[in-house]
């Protein structure tokens, strides 16, 4: 090939390691262009049956690397459970995780929406993102939430530390530390002021570093270089 790109420095290193690849790799991060929500925030909260609960968001394809088992274990450790709802936007059927959800006593706490098309409707009601992945090349879901001023509690894996800054636009926790994940999540649920500050910083970072206006010119520059 004439050029190879990856969406993070982390994926670049992994590509070089796995394929013993010595040629140049351009790192060009992902971007996200949110559409205006089709429904109002109030309409979406009514649809979800929410009152004044904090909304904790997880959106993914539920593949093994997302570690939905750890996501549910984390949520089960947060108290009180009636202070928040976990909204899962699932790209694949959630049924394989239903037994664990019931066993952990989370049936009343978890709201699942599968194969959502108007994701912005739900992003606008999210207060905190929760991502417990074991592997991530970038984690576009975190960026999607950032665009709506939603900070995240997430694992410090792969490209995630390139997307967010710990304790500035997000909270990063070592992979597998469920107690620390739950503690960080509970802290943000209880602290609206800190949650709002992190959310503002997350939204600004998304705009300044991961917007189409920033990323698309990098692809254009790459194409121009290749066409010389």
Describe the protein in words.
With 228 residues, the chain is an alpha/beta fold. The chain has one domain (36-210): 3-Layer(aba) Sandwich (Rossmann fold), CATH 3.40.50. It has ten helices and eight strands. Strand 6, helix 6 (140-146) and strand 7 (152-155) form a beta-alpha-beta unit. Helix 3 (68-76) packs across helix 8. The chain is globular. The chain starts with a strand and ends with a helix. The relative contact order is 0.16. The mean pLDDT is 98.
Describe the SSE topology.
Blueprint: E1 5-6, H1 9-19, E2 26-27, H2 41-47, E3 54-60, H3 68-76, E4 84-90, H4 98-103, E5 110-114, H5 119-123, E6 128-131, H6 140-146, E7 152-155, H7 160-163, E8 170-173, H8 178-190, H9 192-209, H10 212-226
Helix pairs in contact: 3-8
């Amino acid at each position: 090939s004439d050029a190879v790109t990856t969406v993070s420095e982390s994926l670049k290193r992994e590509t070089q390691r796995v394929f013993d690849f010595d040629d140049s790799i351009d790192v060009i991060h992902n971007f996200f262009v949110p559409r205006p929500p089709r429904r109002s925030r109030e309409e979406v909260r009514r649809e979800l049956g929410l009152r004044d609960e904090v909304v904790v968001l997880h959106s993914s394809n539920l593949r093994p690397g997302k570690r939905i088992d750890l996501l549910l274990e984390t949520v089960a450790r947060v108290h009180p459970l009636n202070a928040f709802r976990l909204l899962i936007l699932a790209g694949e059927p959630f049924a394989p995780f239903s037994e664990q959800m019931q066993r952990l006593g989370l049936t009343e706490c978890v709201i699942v929406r599968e194969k959502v098309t108007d994701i912005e409707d739900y992003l606008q009601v999210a207060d905190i993102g929760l991502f417990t992945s074991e592997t991530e090349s970038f984690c576009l879901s975190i960026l999607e939430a950032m665009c709506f001023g939603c900070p995240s509690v997430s694992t410090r894996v792969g490209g995630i530390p390139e997307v967010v800054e710990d304790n500035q636009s997000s909270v990063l926790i070592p992979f597998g530390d469920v107690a620390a994940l739950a503690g960080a999540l509970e802290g943000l649920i209880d602290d609206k002021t800190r949650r709002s500050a992190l959310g503002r910083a997350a939204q600004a970072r998304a705009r300044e570093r991961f917007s189409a206006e920033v990323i698309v010119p990098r692809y254009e520059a790459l194409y121009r270089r290749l066409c010389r």
